[in-house]
Design a protein that fits this description.
heterodimer; A: about 110 residues; seven-stranded mixed sheet; 11 strands; globular; B: about 120 residues; mainly beta; six-stranded mixed sheet; four-stranded antiparallel sheet
Chain lengths: ~110, ~120
């Protein structure tokens, strides 16, 4: 049982490039989340999903897109990367209202 | 919006001693959950303890316990018999309701240093 996995672990992007952060969970959780963590701050919600085909915006969705075609996968797409998107990105999942399990994070630098 | 405030950016404790990390929150809801997460240098977010608001009894997990004061909207974490492995960032989190997908609102964190 791998839990929540994220790829890549690290990435450097140039301004204006695009990329997809992958997130997969093998716990059959229906709820999945994307958070970002800026230096010295707590995590902030980007997007979340309550099941396949259902997504909704969090506090900081600008510049990102998500999709949820399967229960297991919840990729986060960055279009036209900007320096303000330099952050650590965490994916998490949970079974309805129970505690969230987090992936190891992806450190993204945009230069 | 439910805000979470951790007023101690850094705390220090000697090994084997006890330390308390503070957290306050703001909400108009009556039923909610609160969590403490630990983030070591590896960045992995690890659940330490959780508290259901409807329970009057404070949650405990081995050396970790909370002091939950619902009326004061306070949720502090006590670490007893501190160990070197307890050194990490600690985040207090409030779980939103189903309208927000049960997402978490996090405080800014408290960095805990454990000295030998």
């Amino acid at each position: 049982n791998a839990g929540v996995t994220q790829t890549p672990k690290f990435r450097i992007l140039k301004i204006g490039q695009s990329m997809t952060l992958q997130c997969t969970q093998d716990m059959n959780h229906n709820y999945m989340y994307w958070y970002r963590q800026d230096p010295g701050m707590g995590l902030k919600l980007i997007y979340y999903s309550v099941g396949a085909g259902i997504t909704d915006k969090g506090e900081v969705p600008n510049g990102y897109n998500v999709s949820r075609s399967t229960t297991e996968d919840f990729p986060l797409r960055l279009e036209l990367a900007a320096p303000s998107q330099t952050s650590v990105y965490f994916c998490a999942s949970s079974y309805i209202s129970y505690e969230q399990y987090f992936g190891p994070g992806t450190r993204l630098t945009v230069t | 919006a439910q805000t979470v405030t951790q007023s101690q950016p850094e705390m220090s404790v000697q090994e084997a001693e006890t330390v308390t990390l503070s957290c306050t929150y703001d909400t108009s809801e009556s039923d909610y959950y609160l969590f403490w997460y630990k983030q070591p240098p590896s960045r992995q977010m690890i659940l330490v303890i959780r508290q259901e608001a409807y329970k009057q009894q404070n949650a405990t997990e081995n050396r970790f316990s909370v002091n939950f004061q619902k009326a004061a909207k306070s949720f502090s974490l006590k670490i007893s018999d501190s160990q070197l492995g307890d050194a990490a960032m600690y985040f207090c989190a409030y779980r939103r309701n189903s309208n927000s997908g049960y997402a978490l609102n996090f405080g800014k964190g408290t960095s805990l240093l454990v000295t030998p």
